[in-house]
Amino acid sequence: MTRLSGPARGVVAVLVALLTVTAASATARARTDPRAPADFVALGTVDPTILQEMRYFTPHNFVGERVDGYRQPLCILTRPAAEALHKAQTNLLRQGYTLKVYDCYRPQRAVNHFVRWAEDLNDQDMKGEFYPNVDKTRLFEDGYIAEKSGHSRGSTMDLTIVKLPATRTRPYLPGEPLVPCHAPQQQRFPDNSVDMGTGFDCFDTLAHTLDPRVQGQQRANRTLLKGTLEALGFVNLAEEWWHYTFKPEPYPDTYFDFPVSAASLARRA
Description:
Elements: H1 6-32, E1 40-42, H2 43-46, E2 51-52, E3 76-78, H3 79-94, E4 97-103, H4 108-119, H5 127-130, E5 156-163, H6 216-230, E6 234-236, E7 243-246
Parallel strand pairs: 2-4
Antiparallel strand pairs: 1-3, 4-5, 5-7, 6-7
């Protein structure tokens, strides 16, 4: 057997100690992460036909990187909201459409990430697409960014409609040229959604659901989404055509912070 010298044994001891501390820290984080209440579910277990394009798990969003708390591209909702969305999907499938969600439950740590990003006026990497006409100094004042979000209560989602059969949306390539979110659909970043007049998360008044400048097929598409969801108890945020909350909310005053992952839904024995 080869014997290690005194200094070598010391190095090995330090490495073992570091690995032990790292493993212990990871275990501690896993144990301290909050879990979702029992009535939160993965949307796919309630309706696997609804498309999911979870933008904040990717760099294709106004921040330009994966957002804190999104560990998996997973839509999580309270069960009542998910079941109501399933009913909406059933209605749309009969008409040759499917729903697609961009975001669902959003942990508070993600909202905090948005706030930090908004306060960093030097970070304007995604301005060309998501807020081309808005000065970043006004994001809080104009209501685009806030310290709390209804998404964190678990019954709010961002979504759109896709015509069937659905085509695949190509992945975003970081650093590619950006096109304003309010440009004509043929010029915007490709999305398999029907034309809603703007892209998702467009910080612009054209994204207001009933903006009078949005007419024709674009308005008809927004009306189809709005009418389908409102008939089932959803309420639209007037400033965002994609934003809906199922009412009554099971947790109207609670802002959760468990990560977006299947592990958050796992039940302890």
